[in-house]
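Data deposition worksheet. Section B asks for the primary sequence of the deposited chain exactly as it was used as input, without tags or linkers unless they were present during the calculation. Section C holds the resulting structure in token form. Section D is free text for depositor observations; keep each observation to a single sentence. Incomplete worksheets are returned to the depositor.
Section A, Depositor: J.P.
Section B:
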Amino acid sequence: MHYSVKYACARSDTLLYLEFEDGKKGVYDMSPVIGEGVFARLEDPEMFRQASSDGFTVTWPCGLDIAPEELCENCVSV
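Section C:
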């Protein structure tokens, strides 16, 4: 399975819209982890909305990323 995220953007202050290399499209809800551990930095909606794909996974300018396997396996297909 290809987990690579080819496109990502924030749809709200907690939701990511994702397109994967294999053609899958989905929405991933980050609300359960925002504010926890390293993801505390994403409590700032302005920072969260800067989500983008580096061609492999979702990254933020503050240096955060999230495992592409987590995104692919737990997003809701659209």
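Section D:
The longest strand covers residues 5-10.
DSSP finds two helices and seven strands in the chain.
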